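Troubleshooting log. The previous run stalled partway through. Resubmitting the same four chains, unchanged.
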Amino acid sequence: MKSSTEPERVVQSEFFAGVTERDKRLILRAAKYRKIDAKSVLFQGGTTALHLFLLCSGGAKYYRMTRQGGELLLRWLVPGDIFGIGAFVKEPVSYIGSAQATEDCGFYVWAHSTLRELAGIHPQISDNALRITLAYLATFIERHASSLTITAEQRLAHTLLQLGHQAGRSHSLGAEVAITNEELGSLADVSQFTTCRLLSRWKKQGAIAKLRGRVIIQSPEKLLVD
Amino acid sequence: MKSSTEPERVVQSEFFAGVTERDKRLILRAAKYRKIDAKSVLFQGGTTALHLFLLCSGGAKYYRMTRQGGELLLRWLVPGDIFGIGAFVKEPVSYIGSAQATEDCGFYVWAHSTLRELAGIHPQISDNALRITLAYLATFIERHASSLTITAEQRLAHTLLQLGHQAGRSHSLGAEVAITNEELGSLADVSQFTTCRLLSRWKKQGAIAKLRGRVIIQSPEKLLVD
DNA sequence: CGCATTGTTGACAAAGTTCAATTTGCGTGG
DNA sequence: CCACGCAAATTGAACTTTGTCAACAATGCG
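Second attempt completed without errors. Output:
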């Protein structure tokens, strides 16, 4: 398990791929640094994307409301992730989803106009934005395909393992992920009830440990069923 | 129903949004024009994206193979659509899916290196590529959400109506879409059997007419159930 | 300590999928 | 031009994985 620190994840962000250290500093200096509390909403889906965000510390969820009032999680944001990519284009489009902090967060923000200037000077970041968006698209297509072809159990296991990699904090017993059953289930497209049942079984088998609002992955190999 | 001709759809492509007529011509001149027969495969998903395509005439499908050997349709490509957007980034990534002509096609192709030069000269097309990719992402997220929240019938109706708009050819009885039940079902995430049953019902109700390999939408309003 | 949030469990329902068997339509080649 | 053969469409019946609902328990924050 590669356990990089949060500041490391920021400078190693895909957003800065191929950018010199000097330019990174210039780009970051053009941003504003902000802190928000857990549960704060950064923006609502459907509103105009006027800002690009780079998460530095903490965690957030990217989600959409369903017609029935539930929330469908689109992505579990971790330090180094950018979101609000719609702010990159000349005529801003809408945010696709809403973003809400799941923990206290620190992040950089660029306003649309600032970003356009930067993109003119450092075309590489435009390139990176497109590459990241394509990766988001590929991830989502994979997720959709999974929901049609594999079982709830396989999906949940994959999702949990991936979260362990991305968002896992090192812990004496394994990788700890701060997420509720319901959120985890939503990310895997599994109901909270099925999620609960599967987690219980894995706990009984010693693969994971459960605390309220967090999962500790003890034996990842026990989750691989493929 | 806006029934634009195929050449119109090409020059009005989102890919050229905000580009002067003069520059459009320069960009198109840098491409090669190619023709292929129905059923030809343009590229396979997973291979390196070395070319960007702009469909001019005919039709194609963008799809992924599932582990079980079926094909999951990702998008029904129509004249004016670009695909192979991975060829836009500096270090090319993989095609997310495969593309296959469903009819005889004409299209423009740009090689990666050519495209990079053009993007340097006309930054607007990079911007357009990002905007289009974001739109693809939004569409896909919407589709995924639909598959979790609305019924097969509603999904199929939406998909069919949208296809009528995008890919509908004017016909004495209504808009004609050249697609099989199985393909239509795959686009809506509905099995071919359910698709067949729903289409039969709609036919009985006079909403559509069916021919082998094509659907004619006679009364779109009869499909709106919301 | 109290209360909201999160988690747990069982019984039940149902929308679609799957499978198998046919039928129909259409291009093609003799 | 007709007959052949494949691809597409049809239909019925049985099945099954998950989701839904309701009621309750436990956790931990303030």
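Takeaways: Helices of chain A lie at 6-11, 21-29, 112-121, 123-149, 152-167, 181-188, 192-204. Chain A is about 40% helix and 25% strand.
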